[in-house]
Amino acid sequence: MIQRKAGMVKVGVLAAPLATSRLLLPVLLVLVAAAVTPVFSVQVPPLEDYINHLARMYVLTNLDRDPLVTKFYGIDWEIIPNLVMDLLVPLFARWMNIYLAGQMFVILTLVLLVSGSFALHYAVHRRWSAWPLVSFMFLYNNILLFGFMNYLFGLGVALWGLAAWIVLRPRRALVRAAVSTVFVLVLFTCHLFDVGVYGMGLMCYEVWVLRSRRRSEGRFRRATLIGDGLAFALPFVPLIPLMAISPTTGLATENYWDSTGKLDGLYYIFQNYSDLFDLTLAALVIGATVWAARARMIALNPVGWYLLGLALVVYMVMPRMFFGSWVADQRLPIAIAFLMIGFVTFKDDNRWARYFLYTFVLGVACARFVSVVLVWQQIDHTYADFRQSVAMIEPGSTILVANADDPTGTDAFNMPLSHAACMAMIERSSLVSTAFSVAGKQILSVKPEYRERVDTEDGDPPTVSQLIAAANQDRNAPPEFYWSRWTEQFEYVYVLYTDGADNPAPDLLSLVYNGKNFQLYKVNQATEEE
Length: 530
Hints:
alpha+beta; two-stranded antiparallel ribbon; 54% helix; globular
């Protein structure tokens, strides 16, 4: 129910039934244990960008201890809205190895998403409910499989931030502004897009408060409006000077809009590894939601409707690439999905409705976790194969990553393989051409004498045919790409997405390791570094 008193809007309902409290905790514990199982079932969670980020964590942790790492890499600490992993994982690595530290960060991200859903739901409804258990069904989404860890971590923080704002809404504007400022700064550290998600949630909630106050009082009080407006806006003001001095501002022109992937972004909420399973899940969730709404078992808070409308507009106009970040628009639907969980009212007083929810969530979520474990175990065999090839590389080598002309394999296996060569940064302290070192995106830098050998634009690796063509070009011509002089500047070449193919250039390359869906070659004409 909505209570209105002295111009203050407050959300509250009666306490949840005791039965909900008794069953909620054990079901929650079972789901938490099941949700973290995939992460601990492998040494390296096969998330596309994850191993590249983890390699940067290794550099951060060992820059002063490993002379080979120091030879190639440096760290340029700058104000970048993409730093939370760089701050936390090296801290974890003080007490554990880098692989376990990375796993702990993934687990913390999952916990933040689930706990944030519970916190937001409690803030809106002022009672504990079984409904936020629904969040477990969406933890392993396609955005997670892309390895966008900082964004998802920040999404969990944004859920907590919006919950804090709602709980503090009856308090003084100064208190709300101070707490919101802390969350905005933390979110800026996580990811710039998370600041936008948080701002959208606050805006919709404040619009609802404004309209509710107008209906109850028939007028607006100027002083209250000014105070509320300042409490909402002032926490975002520090972003102006932060962005002004951030190198990320230099990426402001790197934008690209594409309408063809908008439906794909919605599917990313459900997408995992099996289209049949994922589409079935989507049909079940949508069908169950419609049925529950028609049966008046669930209802959406007015703030949720405002947020859906705003999100639809933002989603349609948002570019695919924004500030140099790819899949910018397609990240939004999963954020809105977690926010919606907080604004849904569930009829807890119906015992059979609770039992149905427990059964449905346990069945779907655990089936999803099992499917992830099964796929990750298969990918882990490829990763183990890759680690064996890495062990054959001389420490401190320079490594070029290339793609096969005719790629083999499926997306499920090729995505985590795309950055697997970065294992050599961790295991062999090597220079890898695909290491994330784009100015304004990461703090990792490559020493000037090696900078021309890495991709500084987040582009696609060269194909084998492009390498062969480059090897036949005039050596006196200025290099066009970072791999133009690969026969002179790299000692090893990884060819990805190939299965047992013949050596494409025996005069230039010698096969070192023939792995599952990849090959490792030594460059015959590689020269020693000066």
